[in-house]
Amino acid sequence: MDGIDTTVNLISRAEHDLQAFLDATVDAAIVSNHIGVIEAFNKAAEQMFGYPSNEILGKSVSVLMPDPDRSAHADYMNAYRSSGQAKIIGIGREVLAQRSNGTRFPAHLAIGEVKGPGPRRFVAFIHDISIRNAALTALKMERDRAQNYLDLAQVILLAIDPQCRITLINRKGCELLGRPEVDLLGKDWFEASAPHRDRSAARALIKNVLSEQMEPAAYQESAIQNATGESTLIAWRSTVLHDANGHPTGLLSSGEDITARRHAQDALTRNTTLLLTAETIAGLGTYEIHEASRLLFWSPNLYTLLGCDPSLPPLDMPDITATLVHPDDRTHVKEQWHKFLVSENRFDVEHRMILMDGTLRTVHSIAQIQDHRPANSRVIIGTLHDITERKRADEEARRNSAQLAHVGRLSTMGEMAAGLAHEINQPLAAIAAYAQAALRLLDKNNADALSDAREAMQQIANQALRAGGVIQSLRSLVKNKEIEMRPLDMRRLIIDLHTLAAVDAHASDVQIKLALDNAVPPVMADAIQIQQVLLNLIRNAIDATVAARCQSKGITVRCERLMNELEISVSDHGSGVPTAVAEQIFDQFFTTKEKGTGLGLSISHSIIKSHNGKISCRDTPGGGATFYFSLPLIQEISAS
Ligand code: ADP
User: Fold this and answer.
1) Domain 483-640 has CATH 3.30.565.10
2) Model-level pTM greater than 0.85?
3) Which residue among 536, 540, 594 has the greatest number of ligand 1 atoms within 8 angstroms of its CB, and so is best to mutate?
4) CA distance 401 to 606
5) Which residue out of 579, 585, 615 has the highest number of ligand 1 atoms within 8 Å of its CB and is therefore the one to mutate?
6) 314-329 average pLDDT score
7) Which residue did the predictor score with more confidence, 86 or 235?
8) Please, are residues 557 and 515 in contact by the beta-carbon 8 Å criterion?
9) By the 8 A CB rule, do 576 and 623 touch?
């Protein structure tokens, strides 16, 4: 009995030991028999599953599993018993466990088989991994969030290790290099990104930084290149990463794509340089006036143009007027500026300036309101254009053209000389004849003879006046007078000129008819120049009439008012102007005449142009050419 007692005691002790051992285990520990019936259930299991051990002992382990494992458990045990093939024994895995209240939790399950005499038994250790899983999920979320931030960033985020291998690169970096992240991680950063020529220098620089021989540059610009050779300019900001001992472990950099910005900056710089150069070349200066803030801006060339010290503050328009505008032009400029501020119409004035160094310049000053906000808060932009040289050249050109016109008149006179000589000779011959007759009559000394002598004297006076008239009309044309614009009675001018022109026409057996409106309003013109134009047109008409040997030898000079202008025309019945040459007849030196100069029409054209008029030609009805010019009436000039 003693032996049996001892054996029973030993068994009971072993079971107690096992239970104590199981209870001491932190994980849930469950012992089940060969058909899955629970034989032992430790304290941790009670807590984990919510079953007191007296309630669960004797039940199938499948109650601790949710479906589908629960229903599949019996089949699994049968298969294991018949085949001896275990799918889980000795292998740990993650499973889903079910508490007494039906709730589930993830668990790590490890099962061992207790081999010995009698049927098999199994011991299962279960570790609740819900907290670990929650922590892992939280960690993953955190990592995903960080990745999202990295990917959302519109800058490249890059980390490289001391060997310059990529350890982190975000989406923007991958995009710019045109390669996926998997392709880049672990690769040499410079091989992957730097243009070939820059690689070794860049790598040497980074290695120096990572071996603590150099501080990383706070800001640095360099280009990266994608697989197709397209390059992007990046502005880098970098920091060195250190381990716990303070040794560098890599470089963390953020890189901003500044290609577009740099292009814009370059374009802006180019435009500014262009503008400054253009201002210098054109002799132009610009200014800006902000009325509200009284802010003034002068372009560098405005300082140069006005001879002002660029270190001094710019002057406002009233100050410029008071100090630099020529005293004789000040009132006008002041008035126009005031008018401009009130009307907001463009300010457009030419005036003289006396610069700081005393030089006299002429400028064309233009200003306009840039920003039509309420008065006193507007922005005014203006330019000053130095037109001194242009004015000088204009004046020279004007003098030259006046000179040319004078030469033209002299040449016309030369051409008319034969006719004029004849016209003057005739009255002279008549005067001589009348003088002879008068002398003879005076010798007779009787009353009748005296009366005849008086008559002869009268004829002498008439003929002298006739010759004098021709000479008189010639004199003004031959004189080289300054151009003088005055209100001109065109009718009177044509009648006066007719005396001279008729002489010329008469010599060629051509008649001049006048068809003049009775009263024509005045035009602003230089009389001598207009006479010259008319004389040119009449002489050409005479030439054309003679050359055509036509029956009708009449030339008509017309003067009529057309709307706002006066038209003066000279019509002939010559051969007309062929279409082929119509385009060229006003060109200098174009002539179809054997002894022509080709100057008449070109001089006439520039004279009429300087009078703001038009000159052209058309066909005369019935054949021939009509040359005409028009001049604006005085009322029209003052109205515009
Ligand atoms: P020029 O009389 O010395 O030739 P112009 O400049 O006065 O110089 O005339 C240029 C040309 O225009 C003439 O050679 C002629 O061919 C043409 N022309 C001018 N007036 C007439 C006209 N009334 N009829 C036909 N052709 C004309």
Assistant:
1) yes
2) no
3) 540
4) 8
5) 585
6) 91
7) 235
8) yes
9) yes
pLDDT above 70 as % of the chain: 93
pLDDT surpasses 70 at 373: yes
Output 149 or 254, whichever has higher pLDDT: 254
Of all atoms in ligand 1, which is nearest to the CA of residue 544?
Answer: 24
With 50 as the cut, is the pLDDT of residue 482 above it? Answer: yes
Query: Which pairs count as long-range contacts for 508-513, CB under 8 Å and 24+ apart, including other chains?
Result: 508/419, 508/542, 508/545, 508/546, 509/553, 510/542, 510/545, 510/546, 510/553, 510/554, 510/555, 511/553, 511/554, 511/555, 512/538, 512/554, 512/555, 512/556, 512/557, 513/554, 513/555, 513/556, 513/557
Give residue for tokens 């004078």. 406
Q: What is the pLDDT of residue 50?
A: 94
Question: Contact at 8 Å (CB) between 73 and 61?
Answer: yes
Q: For ligand 1, atom 27, name the residue with the nearest CA.
A: 577
| Architecture in CATH for domain 147-257 | 2-Layer Sandwich (3.30)
The finding on whether 536 has its CB within 6 A of some atom of ligand 1 is: yes
Q: Which fold has domain 266-386?
A: Beta-Lactamase (3.30.450)
Domain boundaries, the chain: 2-128, 147-257, 266-386, 407-481, 483-640
Our answer on whether the CB atom of 303 is closer than 6 Å to any ligand 1 atom is: no
Mean pLDDT value of segment 481-490 = 86
* Mean pLDDT comparison of 148-152, 384-388, 407-411, highest-scoring range: 384-388
The fold for domain 2-128 equals Beta-Lactamase (3.30.450)
Fold match flag (147-257 vs 266-386): yes
Cα-to-centroid distance, 474 and ligand 1 (Å): 23
Q: What is the mean pLDDT of residues 51-65?
A: 91
Residue 167 host element (H or E)? strand 166-169
Residue 593 has pLDDT above 50, yes or no: yes
Nearest CA to ligand 1 atom 19: 540
Q: Binning pLDDT at 50, 70 and 90, where does residue 1 land?
A: very low
